Amino acid sequence: MSTHAVPVEKYHGTGNDFLVVDAAAENVGDRAAFARAHCDRETGVDGRDFGADADERGAPADRRGADGVLFLSVEERFDPTRVVMTLVQPDGSTATMCGNGARVVARWAHDRTGDHEFMIDTQAGTRRATVTADATAATIEMGEPTFDPRRVPVARDGALADDSLVDEPVEGLTVTAVNTGVPHAVAFVDGGRDDPDGIDAVDLDAVAPPVRYADVFPEGANVNLAAVVDDGAGDGPAVLDQRTFERGVEGETRSCGTGAVAVVAAARRLGLIDGDAAVSRPPGGELEIEVPDAGHATLTGPVAHEFSGTLPADPR
Ligand SMILES: N[C@H](CCC[C@H](N)C(=O)O)C(=O)O
Of 48, 181, 309, 310, which one's alpha carbon is 20 to 30 angstroms from that of 210? Predict the structure, then answer.
């Protein structure tokens, strides 16, 4: 196989970072091998080789690797421009949807076309996306979160087969199961990031894997911890601190967009917050989420370009 160099761009949304490849222009034979090699946090792509600097909150340029590779094809003959998105994860698997990835897609498409509105074709459906006038933030329509056990999916026998999994024990955590394009388990904990015994005191790499692989989740699940910092009953939206252990990354990421929507949907379902708008605070920044009673959720937050470079198509 030929080992040609593939042009890549690197972007991140609240620290959830992705390599972007123009799939229409570039032929990467084995996408899984490409993602496994270049996303590796110890041996993968190093932005400093391409002049990236860690100049802002959440910027992962001081770390090697990435949370995935977005293979994108732009179809400019449509109005608004369509972008076909495929996310290949660090373990070589393909994710049906990624909220922060979709925000990066919108910014990448803006950088190429100058447009501010796009339709993004994901395996979870077509999603409308907009970028702000200065292109520093993007909003994605995220579809309607579902607790339907057939659609999360959740697998349980007998009398529970048709019931949503809401606030129930699974492998040591008390979780609510929701699909926001991909399956999520959400566990609420007491105490936010400011509390020394709060959310950051939990050993997520230890508690998440048994839930991520639990039999009740036949396709696996991303595992989120969330703490209600402000319930939204006063002025302003609810605020939640969040951490996510991601399927496909098999570790904690600095932010997860579908997870942020899942956390807010679960908090609403459990009556923990007021109103349909909320702010989620993953380690990598801040996301604004809306989950109305019916209809699609939205996800808004910052997006930034880190560097441009080339990487071998057939890494060994
Ligand atoms: N980080 C992504 C989620 C990727 C989903 C993936 N980890 C899976 O379910 O396999 C986000 O911002 O929504």
Answer: 181
Number of domains in the chain: 2
In a domain, 50, yes or no: yes
CA 259 to ligand 1: nearest atom:
13
Residues 80, 163, single domain; the answer is no
Q: Return the residue whose CA atom lies nearest to atom 1 of ligand 1.
A: 256
Q: Using a 6 Å cutoff on CB, does residue 14 contact ligand 1?
A: no
Residue 39 is among the residues annotated as catalytic for this protein: no
- Is 246 known to sit in a ligand binding site? yes
Complex prediction ipTM: 0.96
Mean pLDDT of 116-129: 97
98 assigned to active site: yes
CATH value at residue 41: 3.10.310.10
Q: Which residue has the least CA distance to atom 3 on ligand 1?
A: 98
55 and 25, same structural domain?
yes
pTM of the predicted structure, to 2 decimals: 0.96
Q: Are residues 195 and 263 in the same domain?
A: yes
Catalytic residue among 20, 177, 211, 256: 256
- 178 within some domain: yes
Q: What is the pLDDT of residues 28-82, one digit of tens each?
A: 999 999 999 999 999 999 988 888 766 544 455 568 999 999 999 999 899 999 9
Annotated catalytic residue within 72, 83, 98, 152: 98
Residue 182 in contact with ligand 1 by CB distance below 6 A: yes
**Within-domain flag for 152:** no
